[in-house]
Amino acid sequence: MKTFRRYFKFADDKLDNSLSVIIHTLGYHIHPANTPYPDANHPESHYFSWEKGRRLKEYQILYICKGEGAFEATGMPPQTIEAGTVILLYPGTWHRYKPLLSSGWEEYWVGFSGSFAKHLLEQECFNPQNPIIKVGFNTEFLATFEKLLDVVEIREESYQKLASFLLIQLLGILYSSVLLSNQKFSRKEKIVGEIKKAITDNWQQAIDFEKLANTHGVSYAWLRKTFKEITGTSLNQYHLSIKLRKAEQLIYETDSTLSEIAYACGFESVHYFSRMYKSKMHTTPSELRKIN
């Protein structure tokens, strides 16, 4: 397999902040089998190690069109990534990914921010806890990505506006894929989806899962088994992951002390909060506060 890469980074460009979506980074890379990942020639802005993972400051679409690999992120079990998969990465969420050594993979990515992007990706059909979207070998999606790469590479007058339009097209294709996928949900998936929403809506409270099961017309035993089957995690761990993400948001966005954040997020002590955060987020709240 031939190695090929195109990288564009716009962090130092003068960005047009009037746009509803703003592209920060864009690229395409064929990563050969039996070679370390990420490639040693990745620019510093893109490089990360599997051991440490990373957190992004912006949204990113990562599309794997060939090959297979693995993906891990805070609050979800390890995922197997197949060709035709989009990984939707959210700002501030710890994650890591890599292709199988035996297969390598072919990847497209675009990092972006903006009011429209934030509004769309906060819709109920998108979920940071389930960032894996199966779009398959979607010719429209691929053609739009290729056009976006071409527009940015040439950088003719008003290229930012055209690139913004093409990115909105990509987001629209993703949105349609997610809606179509949601329409195919089974009864099990619908009930689990309702339970997830109930947990999210009441994340600060102690949740009685037996009562929650009864209100949805199922037994507690059925709910525990089915929730784990569909989400890959338990009810308690799912609730904990939401609390930790809310705490992380408060660390980023407020000047509240770690003790105040711990109690606001329903933890019995700052020590317990720090221990849980370290075990799930791969860093401590105090370390996150230092780099914020």
TrEMBL record:
<dbReference type="InterPro" id="IPR009057">
    <property type="entry name" value="Homeodomain-like_sf"/>
</dbReference>
<feature type="domain" description="HTH araC/xylS-type">
    <location>
        <begin position="193"/>
        <end position="291"/>
    </location>
</feature>
<dbReference type="InterPro" id="IPR003313">
    <property type="entry name" value="AraC-bd"/>
</dbReference>
<dbReference type="Pfam" id="PF02311">
    <property type="entry name" value="AraC_binding"/>
</dbReference>
<dbReference type="InterPro" id="IPR020449">
    <property type="entry name" value="Tscrpt_reg_AraC-type_HTH"/>
</dbReference>
<dbReference type="InterPro" id="IPR037923">
    <property type="entry name" value="HTH-like"/>
</dbReference>
<keyword id="KW-0238">DNA-binding</keyword>
<protein>
    <submittedName>
        <fullName>AraC family transcriptional regulator</fullName>
    </submittedName>
</protein>
<dbReference type="Pfam" id="PF12833">
    <property type="entry name" value="HTH_18"/>
</dbReference>
<keyword id="KW-0805">Transcription regulation</keyword>
<dbReference type="InterPro" id="IPR018060">
    <property type="entry name" value="HTH_AraC"/>
</dbReference>
<keyword id="KW-0804">Transcription</keyword>
